[in-house]
Give the backbone structure.
Amino acid sequence: MNELNLRIPGPIPVAEDVLEAMASPMINHRGPQFEELLYRVTDRIKQVFETDGDVYILTASGTGAMEAAVVNTLSPGDKVLNLSIGFFGDRFGEIARIYGAEVTDLSFPWGQAVDTDAVRDALRSAPDIQAVLVTHNETSTGVSNDLEAIAGVVKGEFDKLLLVDGISSVCSIPLQTDAWGCDVVATASQKGWMLPPGLAFVSFSSRAWEAYDRAAMPKYYLDVGQYRKYYQKGQPPYTPGLSAFFALDLALEKIAEEGLGALFERHKTIAQMTRDGIKALGLQLFPDESVASNTVTAVNVPLGMSGAALLSAMRERGVVLGGGQGPVEGKIFRIGHMGRVEPSEIQEVMDALEDALPSLAS
Ligand code: PMP
């Protein structure tokens, strides 16, 4: 049905057999079949998160998992440091603020990564900060933060609670939840997991559970305590998106077959091919290449060219790209390369760009 080359940074194209799995008949979500399914997929998700801690599956988008990270660990009035390098970093801080946390923003210019020295300074000058929020991979700017280094400061030097938006990184680029000391990691199915949207996954360390016991922010649907209680019975607290669970089961089997090392390597290679292709066309990457993401490539719209016209010219050529968000709307475009992307699909993007650009130049 979809003849277009969908190259936005999520949702991403989903394999035919995974789509077919979604058409499986419904089952009792409080019966033995679901219990088996829930335990099998949770164990496999934990392997991808590289955690021995807890992971829960929410029927929600990624933002739901970010909100779960906040409301389950914090109280109104808590002091929080939000490290933002773009649109989704700002969103994380906004969620905490709406629930009453006292948020200090440590924001970096769009296109740049978090500077760990600045994090150290901020934590040193405000010892009452309880938690740090950070985006691993900022999808709006195509920048990957060095999460290991950030965690080294936040946990290693200051022992703060660390909440991570791993929505466009987990299952695409390495994120070692336990080894790096990430207390909560949020992610969503429509990204590297090669699934349709609808499910979100959230990990919880023992330190996060300690925070949970004190956390006074209001919550109901996103209360992970309910997920923990029901998990022990092999059940979800509320009716889950069953069709997406069926797809998840198959996608995880494929991920296990490929192996995480090979999967990360594949993302690295395809991202490099994308960046090289862009530069070969004489276009400019939006971020500095040293911090460029392996899941999404952000590119400057050439001066004098309309970003909207570029996107529609590409669509006419069968390629769907992402535009810029917030302050970079119309100024950048984004190429998603999460999941199983063939080099030929990236080549198609480059060929279409080469064909479209001369007609767009003013
Ligand atoms: N954070 C990041 C880094 C994202 O890429 C996205 C989705 N583009 C979100 C948060 C929000 O996720 P969702 O749209 O699934 O709620």
Notes: The radius of gyration is 20 Å. The pocket of 4'-deoxy-4'-aminopyridoxal-5'-phosphate is lined by residues 10, 61-63, 88, 135, 139, 165, 167-168, 188 (CB under 6 Å). The chain has two domains: 5-12+259-360, 17-256. The CA atoms of residues 283 and 302 lie 7 Å apart.
